[in-house]
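ARCHIVE CARD
CATEGORY: sequence design from structure
SOURCE FIELD: tokenized fold
FIELD CONTENT:
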């Protein structure tokens, strides 16, 4: 009797009902949005169609800016943009619905709030909200142009499907201390060179080097080897500062590049090792499932 009570107490000790298993439809919706390879044929089709729709909207951004577009083609672009807004709204609703599968450690309400307030959740919202807003609410031409500009955030949705962008984000996170230090050195060189160049060249050509910010512009074009040629030192001291800036920039600009290269190599090796371990684990699981049962058991 006491053991039964203990079991009942442990089952209700958390004070909440156990999480229910998601339905097959919800799980396939999750696969279509997050992991197309694990979904069935319909989920794979939906995931690929979403990617194609985002890519088509990226092309539409450039196609709409061409001059001389006929009224018929413009109407087709408008209908396609509105249809895309509806599709992205449905995607946003589906992502809210499956957020508890993305964050299984949180409750459904907290998981959905976490997605809605995340950067990608805000981007997903902006991908369709302006298009539907101008559809139902009369707006001026300036607001319509603003909605078209905001619609550019749809291009960011492509980052979900690009492994390289995720690797870049992880490299930034893991090597953030070294990256910040490298850019601080670059900023120190830029500020020093801009102040020196302004103090030296301003008395000679005040119309060109009229402020320290102009000197900073010269320093950035020099350090990055852009060299537009619109700002050129005339004095010997200014040319010496320019020579030292170009010489130091060879090493200073190469520091972040080296950090990024080492981080990418380390990240790709770690990802490849993870993929191999996952493949071995899946092969071992498949082998155990195919093995015949022990007759002695």
């Amino acid at each position: 009797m006491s053991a039964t009570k203990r079991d009942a107490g442990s089952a209700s000790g958390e004070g909440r009902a156990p999480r229910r298993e998601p339905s097959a439809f919800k799980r396939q919706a999750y696969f279509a949005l997050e992991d197309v390879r694990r979904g069935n044929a319909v989920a794979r089709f939906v995931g690929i169609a979403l990617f194609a729709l985002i890519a088509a909207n990226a092309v539409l951004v450039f196609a709409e800016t061409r001059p001389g577009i006929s009224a018929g083609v413009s109407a087709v672009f408008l209908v396609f943009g509105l249809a895309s807004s509806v599709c992205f709204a449905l995607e946003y609703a589906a992502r809210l619905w499956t957020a508890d599968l993305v964050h299984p450690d949180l409750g459904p309400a907290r998981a959905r709030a976490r997605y809605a307030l995340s950067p990608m959740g805000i981007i997903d919202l902006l991908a369709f909200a302006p298009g539907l807003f101008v559809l139902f609410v009369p707006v001026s031409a300036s607001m319509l142009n603003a909605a078209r500009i905001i619609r550019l955030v749809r291009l960011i949705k492509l980052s979900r499907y690009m492994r390289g962008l995720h690797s870049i984000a992880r490299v930034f996170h893991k090597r953030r201390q070294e990256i910040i230090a490298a850019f601080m050195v670059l900023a120190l060189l830029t500020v020093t060179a801009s102040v020196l160049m302004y103090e030296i060249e301003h008395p000679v050509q005040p119309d060109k080097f009229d402020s320290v910010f102009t000197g900073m512009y010269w320093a950035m074009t020099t350090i990055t080897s852009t060299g537009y040629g619109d700002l050129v030192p005339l004095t010997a001291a200014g040319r010496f500062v320019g020579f030292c800036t170009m010489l130091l920039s060879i090493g200073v600009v190469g520091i972040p590049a080296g950090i990024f290269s080492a981080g990418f190599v380390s990240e790709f090796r770690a990802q490849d090792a993870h993929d191999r371990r996952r493949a071995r684990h899946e092969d071992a699981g498949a082998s155990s499932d195919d093995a015949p049962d022990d007759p002695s058991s």
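CARD ANNOTATION: The domain at 165-288 is CATH 1.10.287.70 (Helix Hairpins). Residues 1-17 have pLDDT under 50 and may be disordered.
SHELF: design records, drawer C
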